[in-house]
Amino acid sequence: MFRLIDHRMDSHSQYILQHLWGGDGLEVCAKGENPQNPSLISMGEFPGHRPTFSCRNCRNPVAFWQDLISKDFWGKSGRAFLFHHAMNIVVGEKEEKQLITGLFTIANISCSNCGEVMGWKYVQAYEPRERYKEGKFIIERAKIVKEY
Ligand SMILES: [Zn+2]
């Protein structure tokens, strides 16, 4: 069961929910995320393709810094990043998930080399204000390493 915690929730509430739920697929939109302007990371901060993010298990590169949209998401293992694009991953079967912000179709994504589940892809959002997430990827911070 995926849940989406309200943007305005403070960090203490996020902590409680994270640890009470603790189960599969907890997703939290952190404070400061702006659906009208999701590109919170300026391009000038991370010029070029380096560093890249690689699978923690097998070092298969899965995403570029320049495709990073937001670090302010949470997956089941903690902080997660939202990316415009991911590579060398396998997109699983689509499934519908009811989040607090509405109904989404998502698909788990896994490393194409070792099969480790990395996060999920937003396939479709049914609420207009959530549509900016469509086609984008959540990758859990704990599943990747940054390589220069
Ligand atoms: Zn891997």
From TrEMBL:
The highest taxon in the source lineage is Eukaryota
* Transmembrane intervals: none
Pfam families linked: Yippee-Mis18
Q: Which UniProt keywords apply?
A: Metal-binding, Zinc
Domain Yippee per the UniProt entry, residue ranges: 51-148
Q: Which InterPro entries match?
A: Yippee, Yippee/Mis18/Cereblon, Yippee_fam
Q: Which family does it belong to?
A: Belongs to the yippee family.
Tell me what this protein is called.
Protein yippee-like
- Organism of this sequence: Vitis vinifera
Q: What lineage does UniProt assign to this protein's organism?
A: Eukaryota, Viridiplantae, Streptophyta, Embryophyta, Tracheophyta
